[in-house]
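Sync notes, pocket subgroup
Present: LS, DG
LS reminded everyone that the earlier model was apo-only. Rerun requested with adenosine-5'-triphosphate included. Inputs:
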Amino acid sequence: MNNMEDIIIVENLWRKFNQLVAVNDISFTVGKGEIFGFLGPNGAGKSTTIQMLATLLRPTAGRALINGHDIIREQYAVRRSIGMVFQDPTLDGNLTALENLDFHARLYDVDKKVLAGRRGELLQMVELADRGRDRVKFFSGGMKRRLEIARGLLHHPAVLFLDEPTVGLDPQTRSHIWTYIRDLRQKEGVTIFLTTHYMDEAENCDRIAIIDHGQIVALDTPSGLKQMVGRDVINLTAKNIDQLTRDIEERFGIRGNRFDGELQLEIEQGDHFIPRLLSAVGDAVESVNLHKPTLDDVFLKLTGRAIRAANAGAADAMRAMMKRRGRR
Ligand SMILES: Nc1ncnc2c1ncn2[C@@H]1O[C@H](COP(=O)(O)OP(=O)(O)OP(=O)(O)O)[C@@H](O)[C@H]1O
């Protein structure tokens, strides 16, 4: 049974392109106000899923509800409930930032009185308030993406879809975009559904579905996913590493691995263990380094491949697909 607070409900959704199964029987729900991420390599089926949920692509089979509306039978109501920011920018470069917002407002019948306040508020939120009258073609990639986010929110959508919101942006701009995304949830109470193939980015999500070859292979919080991999790793250095190794084994019954002159311990909840370790043998320790399992480790464990390698291999396929999308 679905939770009343679930704003996205997906049941056994499929999408085929001729013989190719792009989305293969996926089911999941997203709670109101959640930041929910779809993480997977290029070609995994992320964009296909988001396009089906946004009513831009018809599912081959299955069902989904957005804000209580069926994506096949109630497309108009679904579209009013959602905002969209897609990989390819859709702003008009010859219009100013404000004109772009006004154009979108007309499409969505946003009340004129509401619009005046709303567009100023949104431009402020994405730090473009002083650029409203500038033409968009002179904006940087990051500024365009921010404007697209503001535009996607203009009609107060319940759900904002972001397809690879930071792809092609530099690390600093990426981290800025994330600040806006988190702010949004706070200020607008909007549910955010995004796709990404960046592991570090996925860490910002409340929950992540890992998708590979069109299927969800795991769905959990970032820390829950990482717990699947196993234990934390602690690296220790000491003047007398042999002695420290013996002491730790004696006191805690933990046998570490030695490599590169360091002692490595694998342990549950390493952050809780370090204070105990230091109070027992702290005098002998020179340095401590705690390494949590990463989402890379999770992807590797689940699929047998590193996501970076999977992405690299799919780069050409992605370029081809971008072209194809342009023609769609
Ligand atoms: N219009 C289409 N016609 C044929 N095949 C398609 C079409 N759109 C997507 N595909 C195929 O469906 C599969 C999933 O593609 P999708 O774009 O959903 O992946 P993705 O995870 O979003 O990757 P990316 O980050 O590269 O967009 C890929 O094999 C892709 O080639």
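DG: Residues 315-328 have pLDDT under 50 and may be disordered.
LS: The pocket of adenosine-5'-triphosphate is lined by residues 17, 20, 22, 40, 42-48, 197, 318, 321, 324, 328 (CB under 6 Å).
Action: DG to write up.
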